[in-house]
Amino acid sequence: MGDNNVVRLDSVSKSYGRLVAIDDLSIGFARGTFTAVMGPSGSGKSTFLHCAAGLDRPTSGRVVLDGVEVDALDEKARTVLRRERVGFVFQAFNLLPALTVVENVALPLRLAGRAPRREEVMAALERVGLADRARHRPAELSGGQQQRVAIARALIARPAVVFGDEPTGALDTRTALEVLALLRAVVDRDGGTAVMVTHDPVAAAHADRVVFLADGRIAGELAAPTAAAVAERMTHLGAWERVR
Ligand SMILES: Nc1ncnc2c1ncn2[C@@H]1O[C@H](COP(=O)(O)OP(=O)(O)OP(=O)(O)O)[C@@H](O)[C@H]1O
User: Fold this and answer.
1) Cys-Cys crosslink for 58: which of 12, 77, 184, 217, Cβ 3.0 to 4.6 Å?
2) How does the average pLDDT of the chain come out, rounded?
3) Pfam families, alphabetically (predicted)?
């Protein structure tokens, strides 16, 4: 199809009863790019992310993920698609507390029916600077360390795209920067693709592009963003929402 987009949404809408959470969104995310998605509370960011990642089904429209039309798949096939091609990093880390760090990172491979090789898992931990914590449990790590484990877990199956839902939302400034640098490296070093929802203009400035949502629609984009430019745009979006 000559399409460089790893993820593409065509006229995607999602309603909850009468409430239209996202409204006729069309947008693509090119391979090897890092995009931040911003917008006021309730603008549809999470709904967008869930539809784009195949976690949720749009009410109408089409989502194509790594060349596969997600909506044409049944629940089981979508689960397999997510497992094999999508990595997730959440605000709340979502590690399994009973498992060690190394077991948490190996989990996506186990779920995919593969026997994880120790070197493979250790290489992923090395990458996020936590090889020395392999035998620890999540509760024995700081928030930033837990998020780095979550990133290692998100990357272990070499996904076509990594989605972050406020991945730095629970972290202090310095730790947030480490996490953003890791996402940046996924794109710059490995040619991966990352899409991150964030409220933080400083975090968004690490992306190649910022997409702004307001009221379930795309309200603008910013290429090569700076934190100041993003913050300025957000102020106007807020104002725009209030007068509607
Ligand atoms: N499961 C659901 N059932 C009903 N309404 C929902 C559901 N999920 C989201 N909504 C509504 O859809 C709209 C968009 O919500 P969404 O969570 O996508 O926004 P958001 O931009 O991620 O917000 P926030 O920044 O506050 O997390 C909101 O009005 C919300 O109340």
Assistant:
1) 12
2) 92
3) ABC_tran
Neighbour tally for 237: CB within 10 Å? 20
In what order do the strands lie in the sheet containing 34-38? 86-90, 161-165, 194-197, 34-38, 209-214, 217-223
Domain ranges for the chain? 5-243
Strands (E), 2-142: 5-16, 19-30, 34-38, 60-65, 68-69, 86-90
47 CA from centroid of ligand 1 (Å) = 6
Output the ligand 1 site: residues, CB below 6 A: 16, 19, 21, 39, 41-47
Find the angle CA(49)-CA(53)-CA(54) to the nearest 5 degrees: 120
Give the total residue count for the chain.
244
Ligand 1 nearest atom to the CA of residue 14, by list position: 12
CA–CA separation, 194 and 155 (whole Å): 11
Atom 6 of ligand 1: nearest residue by CA position: 16
Mutate to test the pocket of ligand 1, among 12, 19, 199, 213 (most ligand atoms within 8 A of CB): 19
- Count of other CB atoms within 10 angstroms of residue 56: 17
Atom 12 of ligand 1, nearest CA residue: 21
Pick the CATH number of 5-243 from 1.20.210.10, 3.50.50.60, 3.10.20.30, 3.40.50.300: 3.40.50.300
Going by C-alpha positions, the residue among 145, 147, 143 that lies closest to residue 133 is 145
> Considering only CA atoms, which residue is closest to atom 3 of ligand 1?
16
First to last CA, the chain: 40
134 alpha-carbon distance from chain centroid? 24
Reported ipTM:
0.95
